[in-house]
Amino acid sequence: MNTVVTSKEEILKASRELIQREGWSAVNIRSVAAACGVSVGSIYNYFNSKAALIGAAVESVWCEIFHRPEDGAVFQDTQACLTWLYGRMEYGCKQYPGFFSLHSLGFMGEDKADGREKMQQTWQHILEGLCAVLRRDTKVRPDAFNDQFTAEKFADLLFSLMLSALLRQDYDPSAVLEIVRRTLY
After folding, report:
1. What kind of fold does domain 8-48 have according to CATH?
2. Please, which pLDDT band fits residue 4 given cuts at 50, 70 and 90?
3. Which of 53, 120, 128, 139 is the most exposed place for a label (fewest CB within 10 A)?
4. pLDDT one-digit tens code per residue, 42-69
């Protein structure tokens, strides 16, 4: 039997491990309590519902997959950033099979709106990060962006290509990197 859970992070870690082994459908208050070796009431001390637990688990998975790298230079160069993002997508697919697929996104029904919100927050954070990297990248031509073709629009395009790659489980960034080279440099 596992040691007694004393923190929210330990509960989320157990939830992530359940997701890795058995998929999203395995995550509920009882299964997480059993995985942690604690009573159901102990889980309710941290999460007031299954939806709250699922939402926190979704956020925890996203944070694990897209944690900030130790090398901050990744966020100074568009190509390095995209290479890092595609590598993290591949890591996420291996660690959490199906997490990125439409099927797994469908697990967040009406009672799981918090999970969907956490996912959308993460997506928005990634999109805003891409915009920031595009603006900081010293290799980008000064005339690359204008009123009609903004850094935001290009970041949105890059993000759309990332989502498409996630659905196809294609983690080779070479085509996207070529688009960046031809468009910005």
Report:
1. Arc Repressor Mutant, subunit A (1.10.10)
2. low
3. 120
4. 999 999 998 899 888 988 998 899 888 8
